[in-house]
Amino acid sequence: MAKNNSKIPLSVVGKSLPIKDAREKVTGSLKYAIDHKVPDMAYGKILRSPHAHARIKGIDCTRAEALPGVFGVVTYKDAPDLIWEAHWHNYRGHILDDRARFVGDEVAAVAAVDEDIAKQAVKLIEVDYEILPDVFDPEDALKPDAPQVIAEGNAREPFIVSWGDVDEGIKASDIVAEGSMNFESQHYAPIGRNACIAEWSGDRVTMWSSSQTPSECRDGIAMGLGVPLSKVRVISMPSGCSQGMWWSNNFQLVTVLLAKKVRRPVKIELDQRECFATVKRRHLERSRGRIGCSKDGSLVSIEVDHIFDNGGYGFKDDPGYLCADMWGKSLNGRFAVQGVSTNLVTAGCMRGVGDVTLGAFLERLLDMAAIKLEMDPLEFRLKNHIRAGDPLQQLYNTELAEDYQIPPECKDKWPQLFHLSCEALHECLTKGAELFGWKEKWKGWGKPLAVEGQKRRAVGVGTGTHCCGTEEDGGTSAIVRVHSDGSVSLSCSMGRHGQGSETTQAQIVAEALGISPDQIDVEAGDTEVCPWSHGSVASNTAYRAGFTTKSASMDARYQILEIAARHYIKGEPEQLDIKDGIIFHKEHPEQNMPLAEFMSTHQPDTLAPPVIIGRPTERMPPTITLARQFAAHFAEVEVDTETGQIKLLNYLATQDSGTMLNPKVLENQVSGGAIIGSGFALVEGMVFDEKTGEVLNPNFLDYKVLRAPDFPTQFETLFCESYDPVGPYGAKGAGESPIAASIPAIAQAVYNAIGTWLDVPMTPERVLRGLGKI
Amino acid sequence: MNNTTFKYLRPISPVKACELKDKYGESSRFWAGGTDLLLQWKEDVVCLDYCIDLSFIPDLDYIRKDSDAVSIGALTRVASIETSSELNHSLSIIREAAGELATPQIRNTATIGGNICRAAPSADMAPPLLVLDAEMKFVSASGERWVAMDAFFLDLNQTALEENELLAEIKVPIPPVETASCFLKIGRTVIDIAIVNMAARMTMDDRGILTDVRIAFGAVAPTPLRIKAAEEILLGTDVSTIDDTLVGKVSNKVGDEIKPITDVRGTAEYRREISRVLTKRAIENIIQTLQGRLNS
Ligand SMILES: Cc1cc2nc3c(=O)[nH]c(=O)nc-3n(C[C@H](O)[C@H](O)[C@H](O)COP(=O)(O)OP(=O)(O)OC[C@H]3O[C@@H](n4cnc5c(N)ncnc54)[C@H](O)[C@@H]3O)c2cc1C
């Protein structure tokens, strides 16, 4: 593979095919979990804690159970004494225990003939709480006498990466800058609500819900209930925009437990308040640090201390700050990241986790240094960003890198690990600057492009990065089955949250097998059919699932060619090929056979048509150690210095995701990332009650996201392709770098307009405070 | 806790509606567009055992203009107001406020009466109606009465309507020609409930002396309200002599008079600051128009 980085002509990959479920979506016929029903289904409702931190001394369900129409109630007494942990430490805890750790935490659940009765019954459950001291601020929660939210203690082991010596680096620097930055908690703001339906049959359970991670969902249920994996079947349904929210969530396990107890299928549907206030959110984060550079603008030292809160049940120690790699040219570096539990609703991964926040802070440090050097931020970035072949410092400086040996048989195939495989960020920055008119618009640090009365216009540029999937919890797999009529089923565990993965994966199968993409159907959600995979997280799908999908397709292809060469077309399998659904001899194309005919013809030796089931046969290198996706955004803003309002006037998002599998799908990812990233930059933030930690804006009226009229009509995307030696046909991930580049670009533009740096979101109020007006 | 269902009643005249209200009292509610009511009911804020739907009563949805006033039926949809050609000149601020209220979907359903009767401090239709001296027609089973807009809002979510009365019409007098008005709203995003909204209206005589000044604000006190102390500063002044100092004085007066709170949309300090800014902008806008007229 390492040698194969030339582009081969492609017939299906690279085409903007419409997404597979587009018609169902626009006609409203696509079924989400909330639409799903099974016969004899009961409806569940969850009783939630009114207290931030409490112990359940007593719980009396007799009145609820006595209400006509109620099938049963579960409390912690019904839950196994088992801790389950969701994907990437996004939840760690019992399904139910005798503690409430935030306002809205699950305490009990009722199943009844309809939702109204379930709601009434929930109110009849009598709980005797012992109120415990609570803590909401992450720094307070680290203090030795702080109330302990979870048995493991509030503080996670700090995650530290360092190279060189930052103190020496600072001493050796010509200029030094220091700064800090605070981030409110962004919410996924899902437009679609989620539901879970669980049905037991004997000792096996089937669960329907919307999830980006069907396999992990199944594992979580098995872990929480203490049953073998083979007893659990998850059928994941499309989720709509998810951003990392719907993975495996505890309400799903509560549903499974409740269905078991009442011995009938149960559906629990979350309302909007529950979606916003009881599931998950982006961490509250705080960064401090310093940076040192030499006179010519080379990075000498970067040091960052970063703290983030996990809320009630998050258990993360490392929010995935791949941005450290981005500026790894720095001679010295130290990144210390600290997770901490609080009595706020659980926090976990949201799109671009770590890179959106810590990445934005790093960019701020860069800007602060560039100000002192009086250097154009574009030039500064071009000089310092990571290039292909450079070490990925974050991993390069762990023991893993030292211990890790490339297997001998992969020596020729794998690229150099712990070094960046490829990159077109440089091109993104230079071509983007040209398209945006950076040279004309950049007027110097703190200098607006134009001033009209109280309004100031200015520009900014920022970058973002993320991995292309990781292998933390296991490998990724796929199965390709070719049917007797030549049509194909791909089974690959993925999310269906609007990112179009079924379509891009089908394109990969079509390319590899030489058939038309509409001959291919994709099953992404049924764990009984799909082999294990991380699912659609960490920008995994195009890259890692794509790799296995391609490998499984190539395996199926080889099986076909092998049988064809044996019986029908004289030659070696290597001399045969498939194109447009026809198997043929490359040198004698007149020797050919349509795939459909081949698949339905009885072979002379087996007296049956062939059975073709492709599985991945190639070993995938640890992709976190080589591939990164990149974004560079350019923003022009107008700041009203009297009202503090910031308006986006012009926005350009450039992107390096390697080969474009499907340009339209990619554009969708990039523009979505830019809008949601800009939303966080400008308005999005959860509001917590100071005394109880309760979420005060659990709906779209109170929690604002950017909508069409908030985003500039002058919005463009530009793609610069690099070629990754591992990704399918050179493709890389795309979901998470675009959301990371907005805050840096907008914050810098705002700085140039008004001369101060702001915390995130940069609300009008923060603008006026920054200007000293309030 | 609320029942999960309600009885649905569909009266065919205002009087019949009021009779139903007399009968069921506090367990019943008038339903106009339902955009507020449905949410309030779902959130257990109001009791709605009996839903009295007003939307089938004929002739409560109209915008009529005669020589001295424009009358708007209480059940008129916000979307109809937004596009009404009757609401022109200085009455166009009613249209502008309607155009900034929520989304097209909500505007197609929400009514002007519902917006006012809900009596939210941030109700977008309130400031324009306050500065235009609107009159409200109340109907009950026993008759009707007129109440000035200025006396309509009593307290947070509380109006001068008696339990058994409904709002039938809003009558907006057409101001003299030498009048200019302005509506301003600030939200967190383009579509949002106001952090602050406001309207101002000024009328001058033929020498350019301000004979009538109205400034009203929303979302800065328990109810939408006129800031009379600020109006008085401007009253009787000559539009050609209004300078920054005077404008600053009026703005500061507004800042002193309002009683904003901190909520998810903004802090009290921010509301106070932008109330001053909006006052300044509204006065400058109006004075510019009036000075233009004086000079032409
Ligand atoms: C997503 C969303 C966004 C919104 N954005 C805005 C916004 O930007 N600005 C804004 O101002 N509002 C906004 N609102 C609030 C709401 O839409 C308006 O207040 C609307 O005008 C209410 O009208 P309605 O006809 O739906 O009232 P309803 O909900 O039917 O009634 C509201 C209240 O008034 C009473 N009532 C209604 N009509 C009468 C009558 N004729 N006589 C006596 N009592 C009556 C009802 O009993 C009820 O108590 C928003 C609401 C939503 C859901």
Explain what you see:
The complex is a heterodimer of chains A (about 775) and B (about 300). Chain A is α+β, with helices and mostly antiparallel strands. Helices cover about 25% and strands about 25% of the residues of chain A. Chain A contains 22 helices and 29 strands. In chain A, the strands form 7 sheets. Chain A has a 7-stranded mixed sheet, with helices on both faces. Chain A is globular and about 85 Å long. The relative contact order of chain A is 0.13. The N terminus of chain A is likely disordered. Chain B folds into 3 domains: about 45 residues, Uridine Diphospho-n-acetylenolpyruvylglucosamine Reductase, domain 2 (2-Layer Sandwich); about 110 residues, Uridine Diphospho-n-acetylenolpyruvylglucosamine Reductase, domain 3; about 120 residues, CO dehydrogenase flavoprotein, C-terminal domain (Enolase-like, domain 1). In chain B, a hairpin with a 2-residue loop joins strand 8 and strand 9. The radius of gyration of chain B is 19 Å and the shape is globular. Chain B starts with 6 loop residues before the first strand and ends with a helix. The chains are: A alpha+beta (about 775), B alpha+beta (about 300). The complex binds flavin-adenine dinucleotide. The site of flavin-adenine dinucleotide has 30 residues of chain B, from strand 2, helix 2, helix 6 and strand 10.
